[in-house]
């Protein structure tokens, strides 16, 4: 019998380390554009680290708001390169992770956290290079009783994250790329990078084509006095 809401599942597959590596120099706006700007971890998440980018395979946790029993379990189950993606319901009353969990995670080679909830011991996060996104900060600690689930689809601000998806986070936020689509999206991102590079060249040498703006205004019926 399934114990819905309190269960640990096995992640069937995850994006390969080789594919993850290919996204090392990719930025979130380019990924987002090639997902039709429809998916994002939301403006409610802020970065709590100094520099670098968040990149890895999602290990998902859905937890009771304010309770981190399942997050502790996930740290023990995590593999090198995993990103812990925790849906704690967006509640910031009690912190979901702190400095001890941060140190445990670094030691295990976990790549970062996305917490739809709060963190504490925030100086340790803010002053470090371990990529963490969270909704807020509170000194109030977590309960450790459950329930919760590991390796189930979770959603943060409407973005669904499946176990094994590729997670990318930078100065502009967090995006989850469905595992099966990573290669396609990478191809599209590469063509966008090329086009943008050509635009920068054209700006530099004064040949940039701006005719699309007037064409669009005309097409949309804009009145221009
Ligand atoms: O007590 C906890 O589980 C959270 C915490 O503050 C830490 O990891 O340092
Ligand atoms: Mg602590």
TrEMBL record:
EC numbers: 4.1.1.112, 4.1.3.17
Superkingdom of origin: Bacteria
Protein name: Putative 4-hydroxy-4-methyl-2-oxoglutarate aldolase
Cofactor: a divalent metal cation
CDD domains: RraA_family (cd16841)
Known role: Catalyzes the aldol cleavage of 4-hydroxy-4-methyl-2-oxoglutarate (HMG) into 2 molecules of pyruvate. Also contains a secondary oxaloacetate (OAA) decarboxylase activity due to the common pyruvate enolate transition state formed following C-C bond cleavage in the retro-aldol and decarboxylation reactions.
Entry-linked NCBIfam families: PRK06201.1 (NF004850)
Record-linked Gene3D superfamilies: Ribonuclease E inhibitor RraA/RraA-like (3.50.30.40)
Matches recorded under InterPro entries: RraA/RraA-like, RraA/RraA-like_sf
Native source organism of the sequence: Gracilibacillus salinarum
């Amino acid at each position: 019998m399934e114990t819905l809401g309190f269960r640990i599942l096995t992640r069937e597959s995850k994006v390969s380390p080789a594919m993850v590596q290919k996204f090392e120099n990719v930025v979130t706006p380019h990924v987002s554009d090639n997902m039709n700007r429809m998916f994002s971890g939301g403006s409610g998440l802020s970065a709590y680290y100094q520099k670098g980018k968040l990149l890895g395979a999602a290990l998902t946790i859905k937890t009771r708001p304010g309770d981190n029993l399942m997050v502790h379990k996930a740290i023990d189950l995590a593999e090198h390169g995993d990103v812990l993606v925790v849906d704690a319901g967006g509640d910031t009353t009690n912190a979901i992770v702190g400095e001890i969990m941060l140190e445990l995670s670094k030691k295990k080679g976990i790549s970062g956290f996305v917490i739809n909830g709060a963190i504490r011991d925030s100086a340790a996060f803010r002053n470090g290079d371990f990529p963490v996104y969270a909704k807020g900060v509170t000194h109030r600690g977590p309960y450790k009783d459950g329930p919760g689930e590991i390796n189930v689809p979770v959603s943060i601000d409407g973005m669904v994250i499946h176990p094994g998806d590729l997670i990318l986070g930078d100065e502009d936020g967090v995006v989850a790329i469905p595992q099966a689509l990573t290669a396609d999206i990478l191809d599209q991102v590469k063509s966008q990078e090329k086009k943008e590079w050509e635009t920068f060249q054209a700006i530099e040498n004064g040949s940039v084509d701006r005719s699309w703006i007037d064409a669009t205004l005309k097409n949309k019926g804009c009145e221009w006095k």
